[in-house]
Amino acid sequence: MIRPALITWRKVTEGLLVATKQTAEDQRDGTIALIESLLNKRDELQSEIAEPFTAEEEVLGKELIAMEADVQKKLTHFTNQIRIDISEAKSKKDHLRTYVNPYGNVARDGIYYDTKQ
């Protein structure tokens, strides 16, 4: 007999795998909110999962461990993609500022000194 908490954990983990595949920029805020809610559900379920485990739960646990490694990879990729997009946006903003005001960042380390006065 498998505990309901383990079955729910598996469903939530599968939901995380599906959510991390949605990488469209226009839906990113919704995806982030979904991922956060799924991670919070898993945190709540974690307290209900404790030893002793039955043989069926051991088998399911091995599957969950394999799924967990995949979830970690996908979440890392998702956060890296967000970081890349943020840095690209900052770069575009800097390029635009430089285009609008090309002499804004000129080094003014000295002034002209007229010795003939």
What does this structure look like?
- By secondary structure, this protein is mainly alpha-helical.
- Helices cover 71% and strands 0% of the residues.
What does this entry show, briefly?
By secondary structure, this protein is mainly α. It has helices at about 5-20, 30-45, 55-100.
What's the helix and strand layout?
Layout lengths: L3 H18 L6 H19 L8 H46 L17
Helix pairs in contact: 1-2, 1-3
- Secondary structure tally: strands: 0
How much β-strand is present in the residues? under 5%
Computed over alpha carbons, the radius of gyration is 26 Å
> Helix and strand succession?
HHH
Helicity level, as a percent range?
Answer: over 70%
Which key phrases capture this entry?
single chain, 117 residues, mainly alpha, 71% helix, 0% strand
